[in-house]
Amino acid sequence: MSITLYYHPFSQPSRSVLALLNIDQLKFEGKVVDLFKGEARSPEYLKINPFGGVPFLIHNDIHLSESNAILQYLCDAFPVELRGFYGNNSDERAQVNQLLSWYQSTFDPLFSNLLVCGCNQPKIQSP
Ligand SMILES: N[C@@H](CCC(=O)N[C@@H](CS)C(=O)NCC(=O)O)C(=O)O
Predict the structure, then answer these.
(1) What's the gap between Cα 35 and its chain centre?
(2) Is any atom of ligand 1 closer than 6 Å to the C-beta of 13?
(3) Do 40 and 16 sit in the same domain of this protein?
(4) Could you give the number of structural domains in the chain?
(5) Mean pLDDT of the chain
(6) CB-CB neighbours of 64 under 10 Å
(7) Which ligand 1 atom sits nearest the alpha carbon of residue 38?
């Protein structure tokens, strides 16, 4: 079992994956991709992750971008260590998926916009 996570500590999607990995202290190798130096778009990094950006996970033969996909994969791949974090049945998973989708589609774009330009005060309704 070998897990490698490419991440940056200022990246919220990276931190969500780091938090899950640390819940049960899953062993992984962390590699910082320096976003401030543009490393996420460098030719070297694009060979590893053709989508660019972080987080990016490699586990055995699996190569994954997108934090939600990584979170879901880890819970499926390590059901003993991460028991319960992705729900124990379809009803519970539906609730988790709803929040993950809401975060990606609603909260994150508005919050990122606020951080970047400090305008367009978001009006967010939780699901
Ligand atoms: N939807 C993606 C968002 C990934 C993302 O936007 N990552 C940013 C850091 S928060 C990034 O790597 N930006 C650098 C770049 O795209 O060059 C996810 O959830 O993983």
Answers:
(1) 15
(2) yes
(3) yes
(4) 2
(5) 90
(6) 19
(7) 17
CATH of the domain at 32: 3.40.30.10
Strand partners, 76: none
Low-confidence ranges of the chain (pLDDT < 50): none
99, 50: one domain: no
Write down the pTM of the prediction: 0.89
Phi-psi region of 49 (alpha: psi -120 to 50; beta: other; left: phi over 0): beta
Ligand 1: which of 49, 54, 66, 72 to mutate, most ligand atoms within 8 Å of CB?
A: 54
The CA distance from 51 to 6, in Å, is 13
Is 82 a member of any domain? no
Give the model's pLDDT for residue 55.
98
**Look-up of token digits 């305008």:** 119
Distance separating alpha carbons of residues 86 and 70, to the nearest angstrom: 12
Q: Residue 56: which domain range? A: 3-77
Measured CA distances, 25 to 30, 42, 45, 99 (Å): 13, 30, 26, 24
